[in-house]
Amino acid sequence: MKLYAMQGACSLASHIALIWAGVPYELAMLSHAEAGGDAFRQVNPKGAVPALVLDGGGVLTESLAVLQHIARLAPAAHLGAAPGDMLEQARMDELLADLVSDIHKAWGPVFVPGRYVTQKANEDDARQAAFGQLDKQYARLDTMLQGREWALFGRRTVADAYLDVMCRWKDKTPQPIAHYPALAAFKARLDADLAV
Fold first, then answer.
1. Tens of pLDDT along 48-102?
2. Torsion region of 149: left, alpha or beta (phi above 0 gives left; psi -120 to 50 gives alpha)
3. For the purposes of burial, counting CB atoms within 10 Å of the CB of 104, is it exposed (0-12), middle (13-18) or buried (19 or more)?
4. Spatial CA neighbour of 183 closest among 145, 152, 151, 148
5. What pTM was estimated for this model as a whole?
6. Burial, 30: exposed, middle or buried (Cβ in 10 Å; 0-12, 13-18, 19+)?
7. Which candidate, 144, 155, 193, 39, places its Cα nearest to that of 28?
8. Predicted confidence band at 34 (pLDDT cuts at 50, 70, 90)?
9. Which DSSP helix (H) or strand (E) runs through 29?
10. Which architecture does CATH list for 86-191?
11. Domain boundaries, the chain
12. Topology given in CATH for the domain delimited by 2-77
C-alpha cells in the first residue's frame, strides 16, 4: 500500500495507524502545491489527504474510511471494534464521525478563513469565532476523556490516532491543549509513543 500524506495534516492519523497496525506501506509526503496538483489528482481527484493506494490498485480516501480499513487489515493489533461487535463498531463510527465531521471541520475558519467571509478584513473575525467554537468542542472532548487512557474500549484504537492530531492543532490557538487536563495527558502519552 501507499499512503499519501502532508506534514501537519490529518493524514498523520492514518500514518500513525499504519505503524501501529504493523502492515507494510510506502509513504509519499506531499506539499500543499503537490496535493492540489494534477499528478496527485490522478490518485485522488479531491486533491486531499489521506489517500491510500491499496495493494490491488484501488484508492481509498477520507480519514474515517482509511482508518477503519487499516483497523480491519490488522485485527490482531486491536485498533478497531471487535470483529462482529455491532455496538463497538457503532461507537467507533460515532467517535470518528465526530472527530472528522464536527471537530476537524470546525477548524476551517482558522486554516482558510477566506472561505467563510466575503471581505478579507473580516478573516480575523472568522478565526476568533472558530476559536470560541473549538474551545467548546475541546471542553466536551476533555470531559469525555476524563478517567480514561484511551478514547474507546479501554485500549488504543485508530480513533486515538485522529484525536492526537486534533490535540496537536489545538496548540495553534489562544487556548492551547494545556487548558484541557485529560486531553493534555492523552497527548503527552501519545507524544511518548515511538510510533507517534
1. 999 999 998 899 999 999 999 999 999 999 999 999 999 999 999 999 999 999 9
2. alpha
3. middle
4. 145
5. 0.96
6. buried
7. 39
8. very high
9. strand 26-30
10. Up-down Bundle (1.20)
11. 2-77, 86-191
12. Glutaredoxin (3.40.30)
CB 24 within 8 A of CB 179: no
Query: What residue type is assigned to position 192 of the chain?
Result: A
pLDDT tens, residue by residue, 105-135 = 999 999 999 999 999 999 999 999 999 999 9
Tell the residue number behind the cell numbers 476559536, with chain if given: 131
DSSP string covering 151-184, please? Answer: SBTTB--HHHHHHHHHHHHHTTSSS-GGGSHHHH
Residue identified by cell 484504537 is 157
Per-residue b/e over 141-156, b at no fewer than 16 CB within 10 Å?
bbebbeeeebbbbeeb
Task: Please write the tens of the pLDDT for every residue from 141-189.
Answer: 999 999 999 999 999 999 999 999 999 999 999 999 999 999 999 999 9
The burial class, CB within 10 Å (0-12 / 13-18 / 19+), for 66 is buried
